[in-house]
Design goal:
Pathway: Amino-acid biosynthesis; L-proline biosynthesis; L-proline from L-glutamate 5-semialdehyde: step 1/1. This protein is α/β, with parallel strands linked by helices. The chain folds into two domains: 7-168, 3-Layer(aba) Sandwich (Rossmann fold); 178-260, ProC C-terminal domain-like fold, CATH 1.10.3730. The chain contains twelve helices and eight strands. An eight-stranded mixed β-sheet has the order 3-2-1-4-5-6-7-8, sandwiched between helices. Helix 7 (168-176) packs across helix 12 (251-280) and helix 8 (178-195) packs across helix 9 (200-221). Bound molecules: NADPH dihydro-nicotinamide-adenine-dinucleotide phosphate (NDP) and (2S)-3,4-dihydro-2H-pyrrole-2-carboxylic acid.
Length: 281
C-alpha cells in the first residue's frame, strides 16, 4: 500500500529524524519522496538533506497539498501555528499522522477545513533502528484502510499496538518516554560500575550486553520477568543483596510513579491545548 506514497514532515526535530532514518532504512520510500519543513531552523533542514537526501521545503502549503501523508512533528504547544499554515492545503484523500504528545485527533480534525483522516501515533526514537514500540489510534474520519496504512508504516519500524485514543497518554508515559528511562538506567549502572572499580570503557559493554541479553531472554523464552529474575536470584546471594537495596529505594513504586507522572503530563498537555482552542473560538 505504501508504494509511491509521499511524506511531508512538519517539524524537523528528534522524532522526525528518527522516523526518516527508519523509513529510509526499511526501504518504505525513497529520500526524494520525503519533504521536511521547520519553523525557522534552516541549518537543521540542510543537515537532514545532506545526511539523508530528503527534500527541505519552506513553502509548507505547496508541500502539504502535494503529500499523501503529512506527519505533524512539532512540539504540542506549536500545533496551532502549524495547523494555521496547513488549514487550506489539505484534502480528504490525504492522511495526517500526528506524533504529538497529548494532542487529540479531534483537535486537529476541528482545526482543518476538510474531513481528513487523522491518526494519532506515539512512536519512540528507536524508529531509527526499526525497534520502536508504537501506539496508534484512529480519528473519526479515518477509514480502516487508512489505519492499515499507518500500521504498515510503523510495523516496518517495530512493534505496533492499536489502542483506544484515551490510552495513548499512557502509551506516551510508558513507551514514548520509555527509552529515556532505560538510558537513565544505563547511566546509573555505568556510574555504579565505576564506583565499584570498573572503568567506564569496560562498564559500557557489560551494561549494554546485559540489557540486550535480558530483553532477548524475555522475548525469546516467553517467560515472565518474575521467573527470569528468580532464576538469577540465588537465596542469600549477590542478586538478592542488590534487589533488597533497590526495594529500600522503593524501585518499583518509583518507576510506577514516573510512568504515571509522564502519562498525566501528556493528558495535561492535551488539556492546555484544548483550553487554548476554546479560548480562540
Ligand atoms: N522526541 C521523542 O522521543 C518523541 C517526541 N514525540 C512528539 O514529537 C513532537 C516533536 O518532538 P521532538 O522531535 O522531540 O521536538 P524537537 O524540538 O526536536 O522538534 C520540533 C520541531 O518542530 C519544528 N516546528 C515548530 N513549529 C513548526 C511549524 N509551525 N512548522 C514547521 N515546523 C515547526 C521546530 O522547528 P524550529 O527548530 O525551526 O523551531 C523543531 O524542529 C512532540 O510533539 C513530541 O511530543 C513523540 C514521540 C517521541
Ligand atoms: O518528552 C516528550 O514530551 C516526548 C513525548 C514522548 C517522548 N518525548
Amino acid at each position: 500500500m505504501l508504494e509511491g506514497k509521499t511524506f511531508f514532515f512538519v517539524g524537523a526535530g528528534n522524532i522526525c529524524e528518527s522516523m526518516i532514518k527508519g523509513i529510509l532504512s526499511a526501504g518504505i520510500v525513497r529520500p526524494g519522496e520525503i519533504r521536511v519543513a521547520n519553523r525557522s531552523n534552516t541549518e537543521r533542514l540542510n543537515y537532514l538533506r545532506n545526511y539523508y537526501g530528503i527534500v527541505p521545503v519552506t513553502d509548507k502549503q505547496t508541500a502539504a497539498a502535494k503529500a499523501d501523508i503529512i506527519v505533524l512533528a512539532m512540539k504540542p504547544q506549536d500545533v496551532f501555528a502549524a495547523l494555521d499554515e496547513l488549514r487550506d492545503s489539505t484534502q480528504e484523500n490525504q492522511i495526517i499522522i500526528s506524533v504529538l504528545a497529548g494532542v487529540p485527533t479531534s483537535l486537529i480534525e476541528d482545526s482543518l477545513n476538510t474531513q481528513i483522516a487523522v491518526i494519532r501515533a506515539m512512536p519512540n526514537t528507536s524508529c531509527a533502528i526499526l525497534e520502536s514500540a508504537t501506539g496508534l489510534s484512529a480519528g473519526r474520519f479515518t477509514t480502516p484502510n487508512q489505519l492499515k496504512l499507518a500500521e504498515e508504516i510503523f510495523c516496518m519500524m517495530g512493534e505496533v499496538v492499536v489502542v483506544e485514543e484515551h490510552l495513548l497518554d499512557a502509551v506516551t508515559g510508558l513507551s514514548g518516554s520509555g527509552p529515556a528511562y532505560i538510558y537513565y538506567l544505563v547511566e546509573a549502572m555505568e556510574k555504579a560500575g565505576e564506583t565499584a572499580g570498573i572503568p567506564r570503557e569496560l562498564a559500557r559493554p557489560l551494561v549494554l550486553k546485559t540489557l540486550l541479553g535480558a530483553a532477548k531472554m524475555l522475548m525469546e523464552t516467553g517467560e515472565n520477568p518474575e521467573e527470569l529474575r528468580r532464576q538469577v536470584t540465588s537465596p542469600n546471594g549477590t542478586t538478592m543483596a542488590g534487589i533488597n537495596e533497590l526495594n529500600k529505594g522503593d524501585f518499583q513504586n518509583t518507576l510506577r510513579k514516573a510512568i504515571l507522572k509522564a502519562t498525566r503530563r501528556s493528558q495535561e498537555l492535551g488539556r492546555v491545548i484544548i483550553e487554548k482552542q476554546y479560548a480562540q473560538k
